[in-house]
Design goal:
The complex is a heterotrimer of chains A (166), B (396) and C (107).
Chain A (H helix, E strand, L loop, with lengths): L2 H19 L3 H21 L3 H25 L15 H21 L15 H9 L3 H21 L9
Helix pairs in contact in A: 1-2, 2-3
Chain B lengths: L4 H7 L1 H10 L7 H35 L15 H11 L10 H18 L17 H22 L3 H32 L4 H8 L2 E2 L2 E2 L6 H17 L11 H4 L10 H25 L15 H22 L5 H28 L4 H24 L13
Antiparallel strand pairs in B: 1-2
Helix pairs in contact in B: 3-11, 3-12, 4-11, 5-6, 5-11, 6-7, 7-9, 7-13, 9-11, 9-13, 11-12, 13-14
Chain C lengths: L6 H22 L3 H25 L7 H31 L13
């Protein structure tokens, strides 16, 4: 447990809190990008380089840009009149705190049963490739199909309606 | 590679220099110090090349347009970058009043940091990659994807309609062509069998009868290189894909509201992106640091790498002086309806190349398929060209 | 706690905090896009859990945690695309992106 882990954890959690609490939507989108970057660096800490770089490529390079485009296309820059938090915000906070309490209790109760293997396992990209087309070929194909369906669906859903005679 | 000790040492001169400098420090800090020295070298060399390229470009474009370029400052105008640098540093830094100050400040920084990171994995000579990661190519594309966000930050935080329009167009263009960039690199990865850039160069460093095994000399490699070059031009917003920053269209696009040093940082970021994507193209297709003929291997490897990168830059400048600018919908049409299908077909042809085994059959087969596809797709695009009012159906 | 008994516990607690923050964001805010941001945060925390267990767990050579995380990243990107497309479409129809105004099924 070194200083780097604490720093990265602090950055990630700060990004997450800022994303949820900031009033201006674009600031919130940029804060969640910082949180994504923090998680990518945590993956690198955990010796999962491929997943870390894939996280940067997909989340920061695609999902963050999607979020930002959606904010622009729905004119999110204008702040609503009645404030940004919903009327039942207290209930939401209590539920989130309750969920965190349950998960935290589960983690802390099982400290003794937690696996402790510390040796680093060298993952080469060849092994990932072999696993993807060997053992995990079915999920790979299904994810391919899912991504195709999602792409076509997203384009159709977000498309302008054809100008019909009113 | 029969190299006399003199040429072998010349090849390794930067490594020897680094080891000698690091030798002055205690043993504990030596690894960190050697990495820091590599970083300092990159931060000094590439902006230096950038300064050279600005004058190269202005003189070159001037000659192509039948005029002299800048020729007042220094002999033949060669000190022009110094004058430009001083001008950028002493100009007043104007930030619009309603602009979002924090985001406005961070945008050029994010761009330059992400672009500098891309240089860390390029093998600039034999054993001269700063970091040899197992997934170096993926790291390069991850950093390249991060530059798009900074373009948006710049365009949005300026509170200017032209900036925002320019930013959105630039991002749409960069996302579309990034898919093409990654897919054309995947062909190389399929044949080389590794995502690590020094490995890919090592696989190309063989010679038969004096000719090198560069991937550009294979049919699938040539097609992939052409697609990569188109995508690289579009990724770095260079002509003919420079609508996001075309002066006659959008004032200056997403860097309209930037002045002084921040504008210089954007300029630096764009040219450095050009260098790094040229470096990647050289590594993947042109054999990286390997010499063109086997009798020329005595010339140092870093000389070949930088020559190839400067040749690519010259081709970029040449394209800028020659081709007219593409309109936004023409650009996007080109990406999704021609370049991407052709790149996917090239992936199939690469797989076919691998399966058919060695021999003349695979050369003929692959070349025929690629040429036929190119001709057919080109004819199809010609047929679809309609002149008339445009109707946009997709997201505005 | 200055030192965790195992590094895994630290990662699991960070993931739990991030999950709670994402959940809070999805429940507290009115704008639909912030709800989607909260969902992405929850997915990220689950990925962190998966990778942490892969790293410190008994059979890392099976690469299960890493594969699961990669597929999760892909699926999350697809879901973000469809979700944001839906938000844009709803905005075009009802001219608002706030969830408590979009509470009628009549179009």
């Amino acid at each position: 447990m070194n200083a780097v882990f604490y720093l990265l954890a602090a950055i990630t959690i700060a990004g997450g809190v800022a994303a949820v609490m900031l009033k201006h939507l674009i600031h919130s989108a940029l804060a969640v990008t910082v949180a994504f970057a923090g998680i990518a660096l945590l993956f690198l800490q955990l010796d999962a380089q491929f997943v870390g770089f894939a996280q940067i490529l997909v989340y920061i390079g695609a999902v963050a840009i999607l979020i930002v485009f959606a904010i622009l296309l729905t004119h999110g820059a204008d702040l609503p009149r009645e404030g940004v938090f919903s009327k039942s915000w207290l209930a939401g906070l209590i539920i989130a705190a309750g969920v965190f309490a349950v998960i935290g209790w589960a983690v802390l109760e099982s400290i003794d049963a937690v696996p402790q293997r510390n040796a680093v396992f060298e993952v080469s990209v060849q092994k990932i490739g072999n696993a993807l087309v060997g053992r995990y070929v079915l999920p790979l194909e299904i994810v391919g199909l899912l991504l195709t369906a999602a792409t076509i669906g997203a384009v159709i859903v977000a498309m302008h309606e054809k100008e019909r005679s009113r | 590679m029969a190299a006399t000790p003199f040429f072998a040492n010349l090849d390794r001169i930067f490594i020897l220099l680094r080891d000698w400098l690091v030798g002055f420090l205690p043993v504990a800090v030596r690894p960190a110090a050697s990495v820091v020295l590599g970083v300092i070298a990159i931060v000094c060399v590439f902006p230096g090349l950038f300064a050279l390229t600005t004058i190269f470009e202005r003189k070159g474009l001037g000659r192509m347009q039948n005029r002299l370029g800048p020729n007042r400052v220094g002999p033949f105008g060669l000190f022009q970058p110094v004058a430009d640098g001083i001008k950028a540093l002493i100009k007043e830094d104007i930030v619009p009043l309603s602009a979002n100050a924090a985001v406005h400040f961070l945008a050029p920084l994010t761009l330059v940091v992400a672009v500098f990171m891309e240089f860390a994995v390029l093998p600039m000579g034999r054993n001269m990659a700063l970091v040899d990661m197992g997934s170096g190519l993926l790291f390069f594309f991850a950093m390249s994807a991060s530059t798009e966000l900074s373009v948006f930050m710049a365009g949005w935080s300026s509170r200017n309609k032209y900036s925002l329009l320019g930013a959105m167009r630039a991002i749409a263009q960069m996302i579309s062509y990034e898919v093409v960039l990654v897919l054309s690199s995947v062909s190389v990865v399929m044949i080389a069998g590794s995502l690590s850039l020094p490995d890919i160069v090592n696989k190309q460093n063989h010679y038969t009868h004096g000719f090198p095994h560069w991937y550009i000399f294979t049919p699938w490699g040539f097609a992939a290189f052409v697609m990569f070059a188109i995508a690289a031009t579009a990724e770095t917003n260079r002509s003919p894909f420079d609508l996001p920053e075309g002066e006659s269209e959008l004032v200056a696009g997403y860097h309209t509201e930037y002045s002084g040093f921040k504008f210089a940082l954007f300029f630096l970021g764009e040219y450095l992106a050009m260098f790094s994507v040229s470096g990647l193209g050289t590594t993947l297709f042109l054999g990286g640091w390997s010499a063109p003929f086997s009798f020329l291997t005595f010339i140092p490897s870093w000389f070949w790498f930088f020559s190839k990168v400067m040749l690519s830059i010259f081709v970029f400048i040449w394209m800028r002086g020659t081709l007219p600018r593409l309109r936004q919908d023409q650009l996007m049409n080109f990406a999704w309806k021609f370049v991407l299908p052709f790149t996917l077909l090239d992936l199939l042809v690469t797989a076919l190349w691998r399966i058919l085994g060695l021999g003349w059959q695979r050369w003929v087969f692959c070349t025929v398929i690629l040429v036929a596809a190119y001709v057919l797709m080109g004819l199809d695009q010609e047929r679809r060209r309609h002149i008339g009012p445009r109707r946009y159906r997709y997201a505005e | 706690m200055t030192a965790f008994p195992s590094p895994l516990v630290g990662y699991l607690l960070v993931a739990a905090v991030l999950f709670a923050i994402g959940l809070a964001g999805a429940l507290i805010r009115r704008n639909a896009i912030i709800v989607l941001i909260g969902i992405e945060l929850m997915l990220n925390s689950a990925n962190l859990n998966l990778i942490a267990f892969w790293r410190f767990g008994p059979h890392p050579e099976a690469l299960t945690g890493m594969m699961f995380a990669i597929f999760s990243i892909a699926v999350a990107a697809a879901e973000a695309a469809v979700g944001l497309g839906l938000v844009i479409s709803i905005y075009r129809h009802t001219n608002t992106a706030e969830l408590d105004k979009i509470n009628r099924l009549k179009g």
